[in-house]
Amino acid sequence: MIAPRTPTKRHWELFEIYRAKQMEPEEFLKYWAVNYEELAELCGRSKSTIAHWFSQGEHRREPSEADKRRLAEIHALWTQFENEPAHLREIWARKRQRQRRD
């Protein structure tokens, strides 16, 4: 078992950077080819809510700051995953398999 580590000042600075990041749904869709149903799943919202984000006029709803932060986090996570070395992904996959057996 690994001993818990105390977050450093740099860890807290990174947290503040990521907490402040937000991404509009339109910007997210420029990077990722997902449909409204998938976007709803990613954000934990209904497909109807997502449709209102993209509608015009009186029925338009703005995504919350939490929704935009979630999109930024998913974008960062997915982008980071694409750039991870294959050997690290293999190590983590083996670790997940061991955890499922335990």
Summarize the structure.
This protein has 102 residues and is mostly helical. The chain has six helices and no strands. It is 69% helix and 0% strand.
**How much β-strand is present in the residues?**
under 5%
- The helix/strand series, from N terminus to C terminus, equals HHHHHH
| Helix coverage percent | 55-70%
Distance between the termini: 14 Å
Low-confidence stretches: none
Mind describing the biggest β-sheet?
none
How many beta-strand elements? 0
Mean pLDDT, all residues: 89
Instruction: Kindly name the structural category.
Output: mainly alpha
Secondary structure blueprint with pairings:
Blueprint: H1 9-20, H2 25-31, H3 36-43, H4 47-54, H5 65-83, H6 86-101
Helix pairs in contact: 3-4
Description of the molecule:
The protein is an all-alpha fold and 102 residues long. The chain has one domain (21-101). The chain has helices at residues 9-20, 25-31, 36-43, 47-54, 65-83, 86-101. Helix 3 packs across helix 4. The longest helix is centred in the last third of the chain and has 19 residues, at 65-83. The relative contact order is 0.12. The model has no long low-confidence stretch (mean pLDDT 89).
Properties at a glance:
102 residues, mainly alpha, 69% helix
